[in-house]
Design a protein that fits this description.
single chain, 145 residues, 2 domains, 7 helices
């Protein structure tokens, strides 16, 4: 059985409004059952760590909680429980702004666009959309081509 390329975008938020948290949940859920594609870390140094840092959640505590194979709403409730029942809305907005505003370096952008056959004309700069394109390209290459 092939391993799974996560297709939840970093630009998606769940009910508590944190961008990338649904993708992080999916990746770690897949990793816990050895089904995450080898090219993807369960908890990486980029957006994954940005979310954990932005929420003030320890990486090991998060990973340990994910051992219980929670549903996404259960994860969000756990996050809220860690934060005393609510999140600081200004902190969440700052985190979301940093995710939405992050751009890859030129070489990464050019590689992703080139793989997808898209001209690098400056219209796609943000990492969220570039990562989406990369995921879709890798999914197609693995599962469809």
């Amino acid at each position: 059985m092939s391993k799974i390329i996560p297709l939840i975008s970093s630009g998606i938020a769940g009910p508590i409004g944190v961008l990338h948290l649904p993708r992080l949940w999916q990746k770690v859920s897949l990793e816990k059952v050895a089904k995450l594609h080898d090219d993807y870390p369960g908890i990486g140094a980029g957006y994954d760590q940005m979310v954990l840092d932005g929420l003030g959640i320890d990486k090991e505590a998060f990973s340990s909680f994910m051992d219980s194979k929670p549903t996404y709403p259960q994860l969000e409730q756990w996050v809220l429980d860690q934060k005393g029942g609510s999140l600081d809305s200004a902190g969440v907005q700052a985190l979301n702004d940093s995710i939405a505003g992050y751009n890859h370096d030129d070489a990464t952008r050019q590689q992703i666009l080139g793989d997808s056959g898209i001209e690098d004309n400056g219209s796609i700069l943000d990492a969220v959309n570039l990562n989406n394109l990369d995921d879709w390209y890798c999914f197609h290459a693995q599962e469809i081509a």
